[in-house]
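Quick start: read one record
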Amino acid sequence: MKVSINASTNGKGKHTEEQRPVIIERLEIGYSSLKYFPEDPFKGELKAYFQPHGFTSGSWNTEAMGLILGDRQWLKEFKAGLRELGLSIKAVQNVKYGEETMQGHDYVSLEAGDVFYKSWTRLLKRIEQESVDNTFLVNA
């Protein structure tokens, strides 16, 4: 899902001293148990993608700046951005750094549970319906 979430690091995380805004441009869900056992509660991964070059405001270079992972201010601001997208309070509370989460050169990986997944699917359905409605309005 394309988004624009601005979340700043405060430099007090375990892996960086960089204080910098990071613009999240895309969110993706990584499925775990749903792929093989759809009756089980969802436990998966939420990937938050950013520009990886680090030269412009909103981008982040993992090699030069360290890891965003573990920065509490970034997570707090990121969750506020999730709320602005329309996810429920409980869904946002269900997103966290975890023992199995990691960071790639262009994304932060977070744990997301069943409550998040249910709100996520409702949001995607709403976005799809608005897109369909808008198409009919334009073509009318």
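The first helix runs from residue 33 to 36.
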